[in-house]
Amino acid sequence: MNEDDLDYFIRRANEERQRADQCSDPAVAQIHRELAAHYENALASLHQDRD
């Protein structure tokens, strides 16, 4: 993985959090939160691999 991958996961996590905040349907908002968590977990995994 490279810096572009890190940027991608950061950007996608932020976008999903924003979508969740803007969503009027709680079920759909929860899906966006879960997607954000997925990207954040991927980021954490990348950081662990680098250590």
Topology summary:
Layout: H1 3-22, H2 26-50
Helix pairs in contact: 1-2
Instruction: Return the string of H and E elements.
Output: HH
Proportion of residues in extended strands: under 5%
Shape: elongated
Number of domain units: 1
Average predicted local confidence, pLDDT:
91
Which percent range fits the helix content? over 70%
Q: Number of helix segments? A: 2
Instruction: Report, as a whole number of angstroms, the end-to-end distance.
Output: 13 Å
What is the SS-derived class? Answer: mainly alpha
Model regions low in confidence, pLDDT < 50 over at least 5 residues: none
Compute the number of strand runs: 0
Radius of gyration: 12 Å
Main beta sheet: none
Oligomer: single chain
Description:
- With 51 residues, the chain is an all-alpha fold.
- The protein has one domain.
- It contains 2 helices and no strands.
- It is elongated.
Short account of what is shown:
Helix content is 88%, strand content 0%. By secondary structure, it is an all-alpha fold.
Q: How would you describe this structure in keywords?
A:
mainly alpha; elongated; 2 helices; 88% helix
